[in-house]
């Protein structure tokens, strides 16, 4: 394993649509794999603050400030919404206010959204996405008795702000391994929504996982928009174009971390007789992409739903110390889906890599 990782680390990366071509010429299914999975490691106990006695959250008024795409994006925002829905069902939360950012809105608009929720007595307020960092930083001090959480950002240092962050690179590593095992051409791809440090974590893990499983895999990796232009998370037509380009160059498995733009990736995969890997939610079961679900071989699960639910529960219990510092593989904060049965035959391999990461035998990079 150490030898395979060393070889993988030497592989050449090239950005902006060019592939990582380590003399790959393709081959039959399975021939792309050049490394044995790690030896079985002891399973580490997972933990979640959702366990235990039922908590009464009926007195809470929860605010959900969605990122671009909102409820119905079949990805990141839908996962956050699922956490709030579970809080309604399991804890009796009765009042939830939802508001969604637009792709072109100003910072003032985000601050106004949070200000309005706090002024109306919503507490806690969950800001869904790193794009809210500046707004939370500005608004939270004005409402010291209101609890705020922000997903995917830990830069806001305030006593009433809780970061909910994830080890996206760890789950994406498993997606990269799965892609290699399922690729017939030994050529896979990655489509990121916006070129930010957060989405680069998905890319880094995916590249590392693919290269850990194969020293000859060819990898294309592209972004839809540069940093600062968040429209890349809600542009399925751009996702379709990028994925089609990769498929035309020979990629037969495409992993996306592009929010609602992923629907375009799935449509390109279906049209091009390729397979795709979803992100954040179990996208095989998402209604908004059900017409193309047959190409979704797995999804990298980012348990935003668990983080949101656990946070609301912790607020209801008035004990935020139960939350993990980072939602990683050890606490099942990230992982992979098995819906559709397309990775059942390699589940033992994926679980072996997962156990090695949890045990610290594999260190997954968070930068490409």
Protein described:
The longest helix has 17 residues, at 197-213. The radius of gyration is 20 Å and the shape is globular. The chain has 2 domains: 12-34 and 167-303 and 330-358, Rossmann fold (3-Layer(aba) Sandwich), CATH 3.40.50; 61-166 and 306-317, Response regulator (Rossmann fold, 3-Layer(aba) Sandwich). The two termini are 20 Å apart. Helix 1 (2-9) packs across helix 6 and helix 3 crosses helix 4. The chain has helices at 2-9, 76-91, 107-119, 133-139, 168-182, 197-213, 236-248, 262-271, 304-317, 347-358; strands spanning 19-20, 61-66, 95-100, 125-127, 148-151, 161-164, 187-194, 218-225, 253-257, 275-280, 296-302, 334-336. Helix 4 (133-139) links the parallel strand 4 (125-127) and strand 5 (148-151). With 368 residues, the chain is of the alpha/beta class. The model is unreliable at 1-18, 21-29 and 45-50 (pLDDT under 50). The strands form 2 sheets. A 7-stranded mixed beta sheet has the order 1-8-7-9-10-11-12, with helices on both faces. Strands 3-2-4-5-6 form a 5-stranded parallel beta sheet, sandwiched between helices.
CATH homologous superfamily annotation of the largest domain:
Response regulator
Principal-axes shape call: globular
- Indicate the low-confidence ranges by residue numbers: 1-18, 21-29, 45-50
* The CATH top-level class label of the largest domain: Alpha Beta
Q: What's the end-to-end separation, in Å? A: 20 Å
Structural class by sheet pairing and helices: alpha/beta
The mean pLDDT is 90
Number of domains: 2
**Elements, N to C (H/E):** HEEHEHEHEEHEHEHEHEEHEH
- Stated plainly, the CATH topology of the largest domain is called Rossmann fold
Strand order of the largest sheet: 1-8-7-9-10-11-12
If you compute it from the alpha carbons, what radius of gyration comes out, rounded to the nearest whole angstrom?
A: 20 Å
Based on the coordinates given, report the CATH architecture of the largest domain. 3-Layer(aba) Sandwich
Q: What's the number of extended β-strand segments?
A: 12
> Strand share of the residues?
15-25%
Largest sheet: 7 strands, mixed
Q: Level of helix content?
A: 25-40%
State the helix count.
10
């Amino acid at each position: 394993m150490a030898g395979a990782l060393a070889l993988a680390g030497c592989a050449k990366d090239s950005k902006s649509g060019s592939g990582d071509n380590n003399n790959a010429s393709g081959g039959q299914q399975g021939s792309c794999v050049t490394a044995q999975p790690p030896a079985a490691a002891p399973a580490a106990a997972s933990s979640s603050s959702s366990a235990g006695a039922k908590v009464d959250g009926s007195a809470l008024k929860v605010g959900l400030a969605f990122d671009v795409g909102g409820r119905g994006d079949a990805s990141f925002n839908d996962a956050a919404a699922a956490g709030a829905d579970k809080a309604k069902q399991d804890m009796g939360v009765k009042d939830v206010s939802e508001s969604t950012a637009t792709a072109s809105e100003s910072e003032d608009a985000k601050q106004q959204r949070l200000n309005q929720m706090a002024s109306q007595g919503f507490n806690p307020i969950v800001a869904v996405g790193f794009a809210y960092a500046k707004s939370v930083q500005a608004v939270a001090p004005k409402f010291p008795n209101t609890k705020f959480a922000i997903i995917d950002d830990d830069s806001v240092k305030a006593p009433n702000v809780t970061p909910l962050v994830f080890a996206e690179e760890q789950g994406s590593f498993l997606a990269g391994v799965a892609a290699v095992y399922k690729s017939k051409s030994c050529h896979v791809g990655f489509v990121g929504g916006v070129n930010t440090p957060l989405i680069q974590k998905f890319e880094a893990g995916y590249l590392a996982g693919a290269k850990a499983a194969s020293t000859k895999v060819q990898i294309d990796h592209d972004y839809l928009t540069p940093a600062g232009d968040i429209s890349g998370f809600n542009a399925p037509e751009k996702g379709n174009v990028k994925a089609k380009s990769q498929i035309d160059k020979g990629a037969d498995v495409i992993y996306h971390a592009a929010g609602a733009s992923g629907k375009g990736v799935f449509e390109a995969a279906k049209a091009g007789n390729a397979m795709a890997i979803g992100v954040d939610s179990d996208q095989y079961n998402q209604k908004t992409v059900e017409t193309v679900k047959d190409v979704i071989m797995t999804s990298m699960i980012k348990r935003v739903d668990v983080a949101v639910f656990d946070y609301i529960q912790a607020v209801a219990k008035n004990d935020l110390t139960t939350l993990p510092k980072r939602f990683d593989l050890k606490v099942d904060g990230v992982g992979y889906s098995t819906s559709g049965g397309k990775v059942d035959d390699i589940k033992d391999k994926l679980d072996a890599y997962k156990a090695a990461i949890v045990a610290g035998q594999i260190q997954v990079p968070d930068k490409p």
